[in-house]
Design goal:
The structure is a single chain. The protein is 58% helix and 4% strand. It contains nine helices and two strands. It is globular, with a radius of gyration of 21 Å.
Length: 314
C-alpha cells in the first residue's frame, strides 16, 4: 500500500513537471511543487506551534524600525506590480472582458509572465506579517483565517503560474489585490511610525470598505465568463475558484462590517490605535487605543466581537 502511494505521488510529480509551462521553468520555486509545499508547511507549523512556544518565556520584541522598512518596501513592491500588470496588458491591449491566456513569446506576454510570477513571489514575502505577530507575541492575531489566507494564496497561485502563467481573466484579481495592498501597507506604515502619525489614520474604518470593493470587482469581473457565449483559452477551474474566493471573502468582510460598524455602532475615532502590522486576509481591527478610558480599560473589535482588557501601549 505504501509503495503504491509513493509510486502515485512520484507519477503525479512527473506529470506536473511535464506540464509546467516552459516560459517559467527557470524562475525560482517553479521547478516543482516540493519546495513550495515545504515552505508553506513550515510556515504553518512555525506560526501555529513552534513560534509561539519559543516566545512563551521571552519578552515581545518591538521591531518598530523593521516594520517601517518592511511596510514601505511592500507599498513600493505592490505599486510596481500594479504598474507592470497595467503595462503588460490591462492598460494596453486587454478588453477587461474575455481576455485570453496567451501562449506566445511576445515581449508583452513575457512581461505579463514576469509580473505574474512577481505577484506570486510577493505572497512569500507577506509571510513576514505572521513573523511580526509571533515575535511581538500577538498570537491572538494569528487566526485560522490569517494562516489559511497566507498559505493558500501562494499555494493556489503556484498552480496558476505553472500551468497558465500568461494573462487571461484570472490575473485581474492579482492586479486588484496588489492595488489594495498598496493602500493597506501604507496604512500599516503610518501606524508603525508612531503616535505622531495617528491623526492621519482617521480613515481606518474605510479600509474594510476598500476590501469589500476589491471582492466585488473581482467577483463581477470573473462572473462575465458565465454569461459569454464563447470565451476560449481559459481554465474553467481557475474561473470557478476565483469567483468562489471573491464571494466567500465578501460575505466574511460584510459580516465584520455589520457586526462592528452597524450592530456594534462602531464609529471611527482618532483615539483608536490600530495594528502596527496587519494582514489583508482579515478586517482591520483595533488592538488598543493606548489611552485610559474611565476605569482604565480599553476595548477592541475582533471579528465583530468586543473584547475588553487593560490598556497598554503597543
Amino acid at each position: 500500500m505504501l509503495q503504491e502511494a509513493v509510486s502515485n505521488i512520484l507519477e503525479l510529480h512527473s506529470y506536473i513537471i511535464a506540464r509546467t509551462d516552459a516560459r517559467v521553468k527557470d524562475y525560482p520555486l517553479m521547478q516543482g511543487p516540493v519546495k513550495m509545499n515545504l515552505i508553506l508547511l513550515s510556515y504553518v507549523i512555525i506560526s501555529v506551534y513552534i513560534g509561539p512556544r519559543l516566545m512563551t518565556n521571552r519578552k515581545p520584541l518591538q521591531l518598530k524600525t523593521a516594520m517601517i522598512v518592511y511596510n514601505l518596501c511592500m507599498v513600493l513592491l505592490n505599486a510596481y506590480i500594479v504598474y507592470e500588470f497595467m503595462m503588460s496588458g490591462w492598460a494596453t491591449t486587454y478588453t477587461w472582458r474575455c481576455d485570453l491566456i496567451d501562449t506566445s513569446n511576445s515581449p508583452e506576454t513575457l512581461r505579463m509572465i514576469r509580473v505574474s510570477w512577481l505577484f506570486y513571489f510577493s505572497k512569500y514575502i507577506e509571510l513576514l506579517d505572521t513573523v511580526f505577530f509571533v515575535l511581538r507575541k500577538k498570537q491572538s492575531q494569528i487566526t485560522f483565517l490569517h494562516v489559511f489566507h497566507h498559505s493558500f494564496m501562494p499555494w493556489s497561485w503556484w498552480w496558476g503560474i505553472t500551468l497558465t502563467p500568461a494573462g487571461g481573466m484570472g490575473c485581474f484579481h492579482a492586479m486588484v489585490n496588489a492595488g489594495v495592498h498598496v493602500i493597506m501597507y501604507f496604512y500599516y506604515l503610518l501606524s508603525a511610525a508612531g503616535p505622531r502619525f495617528q491623526k492621519f489614520l482617521w480613515w481606518k474604518k474605510y479600509m474594510t470598505a476598500i476590501q469589500l470593493t476589491q471582492f466585488v470587482l473581482v467577483s463581477v469581473h470573473i462572473s462575465q465568463y458565465y454569461f459569454m457565449e464563447k470565451c476560449d483559452y481559459q481554465v474553467p477551474l481557475w474561473i470557478h475558484l476565483i469567483w468562489m474566493y471573491g464571494v466567500f471573502f465578501f460575505l466574511l468582510f460584510s459580516n465584520f462590517w455589520i457586526q462592528a460598524y452597524i450592530k456594534g455602532k462602531r464609529l471611527p475615532t482618532t483615539q483608536d490605535k490600530p495594528k502596527q502590522n496587519g494582514s489583508t486576509s482579515e478586517p482591520i481591527t483595533v488592538e488598543a487605543n493606548g489611552k485610559h478610558l474611565g476605569n482604565g480599560n480599553a476595548h477592541n473589535y475582533t471579528n465583530g466581537k468586543i473584547v475588553f482588557g487593560k490598556v497598554k501601549e503597543i
